[in-house]
Design a protein that fits this description.
- With 279 residues, this protein is mostly helical.
- The strands form 3 sheets. Strands 3-1-4 form a 3-stranded antiparallel sheet. It has a two-stranded parallel ribbon with strand order 2-5.
- It is flat, with a radius of gyration of 20 Å.
Amino acid sequence: MQPLEFSGRLRSIGGATGTLLVSQWQARGLWSDKLTVAAALIAVGQARAATLADSYVVASLGGADATIVPDAFAGVASDGRPLNSLLVGAAIAANTAKGDPDDAARAWLEMAAATQVADVGRVAMRAGMAVRDAGGVRIASTPCCGRCAVLHGRHYSWRAGFQRHPRCDCGYQLVTGSDWEAPDEIPLDQIRGLSQADRKAIELGADRSRVINAHRGMYTTEIYGQRVKATFDSTARRSSAFPARDNPNTVRLRPESILQHATDHEDAIRLLTKYGYIR
């Protein structure tokens, strides 16, 4: 499986999940009464994404002593809150819409499904990378924006999730060690948003990174500054997903925060195992 194929299959899972959510919205009844079913639909999509990520990592890097537990990545929103709480946003979008409320809710649900599924797929992939002490090379899907073109070919360790703008399609080419080849530069005609002056300057020898960085303005979807992501999911009772619960107030670290703050490879393995993401 190639990096952009993995990204495309994640989008397909997110799109299918969004379609199911919209069907729930359009069915008879109050949205508040459908939140549990809607949350379960996203959780299924998230588990599928984590399973796909595991398959991608195994196909790219081979097996390892520890394996991904897909269900451990499912059932919680990217920011650590319950999916039920997140999905209330559909009703808010409908109630505050300037146009058709159903159109607003449909767009919101499709966006939420795509985001939650993709985030789980990416962080599960990084967990698999951490198990193997592997890294990844950023691969841009062309045509792409200028910032993605600049970052195309950059190497990242397993602990460093890269920045993305909304609907970014960049993928990871998984690699181990330092023996990897940088991909070819993105052709100028495949970079969106460049002015004629930008293109001319680059053709005349200007550094493309400096030209493109003049338009800088990106968003992060995987790393929220230095803030630790955590969730109380699976901490109310002992469960196979989170066997390390010591008391009802235990905070369960999210895998993003584990990968960001682990002191080394062994520490990442220990924490991912402790919080039930690998076994």
